[in-house]
Amino acid sequence: MDVYSAEDLLSRRLGDIHSSACFLAQHIPFMVSAAESDGLRKLLNLYLDVVRDNADRTEEAMRVVADQLSGRDPTAVPAMVDDLFDLIDRIDEPALVDVAILLSSNEIGSFEAQRLQLLSNFAETLGRTDARNALRTSSECLVSICVQLNDMITENREDQRLQ
Predict the structure, then answer these.
(1) What's the rounded Cα separation, in Å, for the pair 158 and 15?
(2) So what's the pLDDT on residue 74?
(3) What is the pLDDT of residues 53-68, one digit of tens each?
(4) DSSP letters along the chain, please?
(5) Residue closest to 83 by CA, chosen among 102, 100, 96
(6) CA 84 – CA 90 distance, rounded (Å)
């Protein structure tokens, strides 16, 4: 897709975010199956629900902005997910697998939440309140998941100190 206007740029970035959400929706189930802790599996399933909702919201925003969906591949997220799975393959201790999943999931979620917020601000600048609202909601939902992931990291750290 060539970029000739701010609307084109918004559409392209929406396509990136949408592709990342779709990619994550395909790969989070593997994180769920790799997780040792029931609590982490439940939180990752909630994360999956949020990512699927975000994919739906960004798809709708793309339809409103561009009347078409982009076929672009996601950018940084696949590398982050690949890094996580590579790391999981190298870890022998199941509890460390959970920590790796927690850290990477939080990193990926924070990265995507930041991108959604930046794009929301850009959409607002263009007067696209429909896209802005969808992107802001998606960002807020991811931030909420990241807070829960961070809380679980903190709990995990406290558990390690008690042992």
Answers:
(1) 40
(2) 59
(3) 999 998 888 877 765 5
(4) ----SHHHHHHHHHHHHHHHHHHHHHHHHHHHHH---HHHHHHHHHHHHHHHHHHHHHHHHHHHHHSS---PPPSHHHHHHHHHHHHHHH---HHHHHHHHHHHHHHHHHHHHHHHHHHHHHHHHTT-HHHHHHHHHHHHHHHHHHHHHHHHHHHHHHHHHH-
(5) 100
(6) 10
Tokens representing residue 11 in the block? 């559409």
What's the predicted TM-score (pTM) here?
Answer: 0.86
- Say whether pLDDT at 148 is over 90: yes
**Beta-carbon contacts of residue 102 (< 8 Å; ≥ 6 apart):** 40, 149, 152, 153, 156
**Can you tell me the distance from the alpha carbon of 81 to that of 28, in angstroms, rounded to the nearest whole number?**
9
Written as six digits, the tokens of 81 are 């997910």
Specify whether the backbone of 21 is left (phi greater than 0), alpha (psi in -120 to 50) or beta.
alpha
- pLDDT interval class at 34 (50, 70, 90): very high
Q: Tell me the one-letter amino acid at 66.
A: A
For the chain, first and last CA: distance in Å? Answer: 55
